[in-house]
Amino acid sequence: MKRILFLCVANSARSQMAEGLARHILDKRADVASAGSQPATVNPYAIEAMAEIGIDISAHSSKSVSDVDAENMDLIVALCAEEVCPVVPPQVKRMHWPIDDPASKDPSLTPEDMRIRFRVARDELQRRIATLIGDNAFDL
Fold this sequence. Notes:
The protein is an alpha/beta fold. It is 31% helix and 16% strand.
């Protein structure tokens, strides 16, 4: 079974949604985890966006990349866009999916604006994870 790790900074939004989506889409084809370089807490908008498509990540917790055995992963997917990506061991296959962080502290954003941002990130992650199944370089 292949081991996949999704990384971002806070392990609160993108990587948490990616973990939930990959477990759902890839089913028993991969062992999936997520982590961040500066873990926070799982964003409630991420939980809500995933619940909208029937995936429950409410029991997920943010993890530090230092607490995950990154060197024994088959694939690490870095999801950072403008932020600095966590360091990836050189011997592990790496993909970089620069997806904008949907979390924001911009006070002008309404709750509905936030929901839209999280849905956009979720849908892009879902599209990209589905491509892993047919990726001959990764062989799922």
